[in-house]
């Protein structure tokens, strides 16, 4: 769908503009034009080349679905590629929707294959406050990016809750469950960190006014969006460290439990080794073994085994072996 919104020099907002009026609007002094292409047809997409004459490489990036966020300066316009949070995104699978933006001297073009919540929210803001669009395309860009970043915050809260759940589960859940949850969460955080990191660089360049198309007023507001991205990036890094620490703690707990089990089994084995030796010796069927002729030989062997077991138990207890290390 192709939607054209214009702010006329007198501050009046006009929507539902026909495509054939677009060239004249772009030439109108003092007018600001916003063209939104949401899941456009091939015919609607042709306006990017026929009217705006955008570079073929930028148009190719618009059609692509797996590009990282980027910004390119083509002299008379800027091409910005960003990623917003997908409505179905979760802590197990971080998904995004790509949004391409073309910023010119008096226009902004937004291109997205799927519905964009940030574009819809910006359009509603323009309808409620026409002054927003009258301040130029830079302010429309700011509003769009600001709404886009705001949608990251609820997801970051979900990441925080999930990290807390994993930290608690480290002491109870099985290793297979913990590993699956940790790896899913780390994969989502890595993807989040990659996209937010790229977009942070974009906002940093915009807020520093590295491009002539960004005016001072827009740059001030874009710094606020940059601050949000810095916070999101820092949180993603913190969550990754917390998840890694939780995994290490869980593996350490499992290792300690295994060591405790091995310690108990070793003590039991050590206690029975001399008893097994005594039984083995007197279990040999040699005729000339003198103990076989003893009247109380059977009781003697039992008594010997008891004495050896008690002696070893006493030695182990004196050495603190039954208490375990650090107890």
In percent terms, what proportion of residues is strand?
A: 5-15%
Helix-strand makeup class = alpha+beta
Strands, count: 7
User: How many whole angstroms does the radius of gyration measure?
Assistant: 36 Å
Order of helices and strands: EEHEHHHEEEEHHHHHHH
Q: In this structure, how is the largest beta sheet organized?
A: 7 strands, mixed
Low-confidence stretches: none
* Helix segment tally: 11
- Going across the major beta sheet, what is the strand order? 2-1-3-7-6-5-4
Judging from the principal axes of the Cα atoms, what is the shape?
rod-shaped
What is the correct CATH architecture of the largest domain? 2-Layer Sandwich
Fraction in helix = 55-70%
> How many domain modules?
2
The CATH topology of the largest domain corresponds to Beta Polymerase, domain 2
Q: Please identify which CATH superfamily of the largest domain we are dealing with.
A: CorA soluble domain-like
Mean pLDDT score: 83
- First-residue to last-residue Cα separation: 71 Å
- The CATH class of the largest domain turns out to be Alpha Beta
